[in-house]
Design brief:
This protein has 9 helices and 14 strands. With about 375 residues, the chain is α+β, with helices and mostly antiparallel strands. The chain has one domain: Sandwich (Jelly Rolls). Strands 1-2-10-7-12-5-4-3 form an 8-stranded mixed beta sheet. The protein has a 4-stranded antiparallel beta sheet with strand order 6-11-8-9, with no helix packed on it. The protein has a two-stranded antiparallel sheet with strand order 13-14. Strand 8 and strand 9 form a beta hairpin. The longest helix has 25 residues. The relative contact order is 0.15.
Length: about 375
Amino acid sequence: MVVTSRDEVPATLKPEYNRASELKAFDDTKLGVKGLVDAGITEIPRIFHHPPDTLDNSSSGDTQISNIPVIDLQGIDKDAIKRKKIVESIRDASETWGFFQLVNHGIPVSVLEEMKEGVRRFNEQDNQVKKGFYTRDPMKPVVYNSNFDLYSAPATNWRDTFFCQMAPNPPKPEDLPVVCRDILQQYSKLMMKVGILLFELLSEALGLNPKHLNEIDCSEGLAILCHYYPACPQPELTLGTTKHADNNFVNVLLQDHIGGLQVFYQDKWVDIPPVPGALVVNIGDHLQLITNDRFKSVVHRVLANRVGPRVSVASFFSTAILPTSKLYGPIKELLSKDNPPKYRETTVSNYVAYYRKKGLDGTSALPHFKL
């Protein structure tokens, strides 16, 4: 017989960790990570614990590789020489980093600030109103939940998200959350202009007709993903977002002043520091696929932080939920005898279905589509 003190529970009697039931219990609250913080927790639940080998929080201090390119679009339509230099900078950044920051992109700072405030208002509104948007059905006009891959990912991320498909068929205004309805509509319209220009510049960077990427519908679909990362009591045990690459053509990210976004470059995690008024652009898997690996969809992540909430807004240019059977493969004009196609053709929806099923497990979905 094992003798124990009143406060000590024998190991054989300790309840086993049942991840599935704890995930469901968390999901059923419909309050996300913010609900845990509001409840005053001082230790994060075990579902949020990430394996130690994924938590290397050291970033590169090497200034030679720590400067993510910042590209200034000022005067791009008025000066042909300046445009040529911008295209060259975008080409270099897309082939090496897969990331760059844009300034003077045409969206007023006041709109950027109001968009971030809108995300805060949504997450900090009355719980009963917010719960009304909570769903795991990606086809709803507005989808609010915590971790799209909650039931398939190896570990849960310290993040809540709401998203809506804003182009080409935006939700009815009455379906959008009242607290951020106007700014969502305004921001989306301005972001579409940025996206169309960006795909022109990326086309030129590939040596193609400026209209090429827009004409094959890279800018047709726009989803706005609004992320909310509450302050975390144990950031050393978890991540805001696991390392991953994006399943779109291009992502244009608005991040706040807190930071935490990192890109994996030259075998090191490199911080992408917040630049006031800037947008962070990163190449997605679909663009790497159609450029036959010329442009790089690079792994990145977000650290958890004791400071918060951190807010970011990701604008995904993708046709993932549109009913289209359009096939995408390496662009014919980029191929040659020395550069044969590396990927098979696939639809965007098939790619995304594979990606979502796999979840953010730290591996790329691209190899699955290689020839």
